[in-house]
Amino acid sequence: MSPPPLTDEQKRQLSLLEPSLRIASARKDFKECELLIAYIQNILKPTGHDTRLMKSKNWLFETAMETGKLDYAINGFMEVRRKVSSSTRLYLEATSLLAISHLRKKDLTAARPFMIEALHCEKNIKSEINRSEFRIVLAKRFDQEALLASIVTDVNEEMNLDKIQDDAAKLIQTKHEDEILEMLGENVPQGALEFIEKVHATSKNLLTYEEKLRLPSPATFQQKKTLGKGLLAAFQSVIWDALCDKESEIYKMWFTNGLQAVLDKKYLTGAIVGALANLKIGVYAIAVYLTSLLIKIGIEVFCRIYQPNTLMGLRK
Hints:
By secondary structure, this protein is mainly α. It is 72% helix and 0% strand.
C-alpha cells in the first residue's frame, strides 16, 4: 500500500531539511547529518514515507563512511537494502556504497558479492547508455578505493601542519610534478598490489569489451607515477568538497586573497590531514606529497580536472 501524498507542511519542512542534509554531507559533518535525519524521520515515518526516508539516510550513511565510521555505514546500507525495492536506483546506490565500505576495510571477500551485484544493475538503470556510464564510473571508483585501502596503516605519524607545509614548499622548489607523483606512488606497498589487481579483475570481468577499454590496464599498477596519479584521483572524492565548494573557507580565501593567504591559515594542509585521518592514513610523507601537488596544480585546476563523479550525482 502506497503512503498518502505529502502534505503542504511536510513539503515545506523537507524543502529546508533535505538540502541542508546534502550540504552537511558535503562538509562531512556527521553529527549535523544525524541531527537532520532525526528531524526528517519525524516528518516521514508517521505517514509511512519509508523510501524517501531511506534516500535521506543514504546521505547519512555515506557521510559515516567518509568519516571512518565504517561499521555504522555498513549496517546503515544494509538497512536501506532491506527497506527498499531491489529494482530501484536507491538500492543500487546503497549496494555500491556497501561494497566501497568493505573495500575501505580491505575486505575483498565481503565486498565482492556487492561489487558484482552493483555492476550487474540491469534492472536498476533501464537506459543502456546510462547503465554503461554508471558501470564504468563504479569500476574506476572500486580501483580508487582499493588504492586508498592499500595505504591504510596502523602507524599514526605526527601531523604537524607547519612542518608539512614547510616540507611541501621545499619539495616544490626541488622536484617536478611527475617526480612528486612518483614519490606518492612509492607509498603503495608492493604486497598491496595483489589486492588492487584482484579488485580490478572483479570489476573488469563484469564489463563489456567497450567498457573494458575505458579502464586502465593492470600493467599500469606497476608504474609508480601512474599509481601516484591514481592516488591523487582517489583522494578527489574525500577532499574535493573541502577545497572546491564555492561556499567553503578555502575556496573563498583562495580566489579572494590568493594562495599565500590559504597557506598562512593552514587551510589547505588542514583539509588534507583531516581527510587522511578519516581514512585512517597516518603517513606523514603522503600529507607532504598531496600538499605539494595541490599547491603546484592549483585549486582552480584541481577543482576542474578532479571533480569526482559521485554515485548519487550520476542520477539523470
